[in-house]
Write a structure and sequence with these properties.
By secondary structure, the protein is α/β, with parallel strands linked by helices. It contains eight helices and eleven strands. The two termini are 29 Å apart.
Length: 243
């Protein structure tokens, strides 16, 4: 990993987990329910939640009688996710650009804008190459990404949040290729600076990126799986199958 990989430290800090502590569990559960109804997978399918965070989606996936694995780069996130582990749900620290050896999956999920973090776009291709090697023939890939067009049009330039006495001053910018979130954390006398950077990947970009290994078969614009509209949809959700 490069020293420029901003996410290595930020995703593993207590501040990251504090700032994003109120993830919407009901939204995640509803999304997974909608996906499972749509995919109609055979029981005991092998599923991978790639960049699973603290496991909130993986735990719901495992409720559908499937063998689920969740992986994430952050040891702290995997430690928290491990609280949900059971016979059909396991977790492991892992870099999503690398192939999991001796593992094959029917469906790989990459959820909640967990794509496009890298400094070099070639790393996106490396990730897609790895995913293709971890899928069974004809296996499927589900990517849940932001709708970059709408996000850029509605970017909130600045906001301040105070949580448990810790202040987060957040500013957002876009340079056309990336969306940046700069976060100044004031904890008593200590001020720490962090950054989030996500590539502003649009549907046309995903088509080009995935075409080597995948064919996109469905696009959705919300967690209710409504059709994708580039101007109006909140999400860009792609379902592709391995060629």
């Amino acid at each position: 990993m490069s020293k420029k990989d901003w996410f290595v430290d930020w995703f593993d800090t207590s501040y990251y987990h504090l700032l994003y502590q109120n993830r919407d569990e009901q939204e995640a559960e509803r999304f997974i329910q909608n996906l499972m109804n749509f995919l109609n997978l055979p029981s005991e399918s092998k599923l991978l939640d790639l960049a699973c965070g603290k496991g909130r989606h993986a735990k719901f996936l495992s409720e559908f009688d499937h063998d689920v694995m969740g992986v994430d780069l952050s040891p702290n996130s995997i430690q928290r996710a491990g609280e949900f582990a059971h016979e059909k749900l396991r977790f492991q620290t892992h870099d999503m650009r690398e192939v999991l050896e001796n593992e094959k999956f029917d469906v790989i999920f990459n959820l909640f804008t967990s794509f496009g973090y890298f400094d070099d776009e070639s790393e996106n291709k490396r990730m897609c190459d790895s995913i293709s090697q971890m899928l069974v023939p004809g296996g499927r890939l589900l990517i849940d990404f932001m709708n970059a067009t709408k996000v850029i049009q509605n970017l909130v330039p600045a906001e301040t949040k105070t949580i448990d006495g810790i202040t987060f001053d957040i500013t957002r910018t876009c340079d056309g290729k990336h969306i940046y979130k700069h976060i100044a954390v004031t904890d008593g006398e200590q001020v720490s600076q962090y950054m989030e950077r996500v590539q502003a990947i649009k549907l046309s970009d995903f088509r080009s990126l995935l075409e080597t290994h995948f064919e996109i078969i469905h696009t959705f614009g919300s967690y209710d799986l409504t059709p994708f509209d580039e101007e109006k949809s909140d999400r860009l959700i792609l379902l592709a199958h391995l060629k």
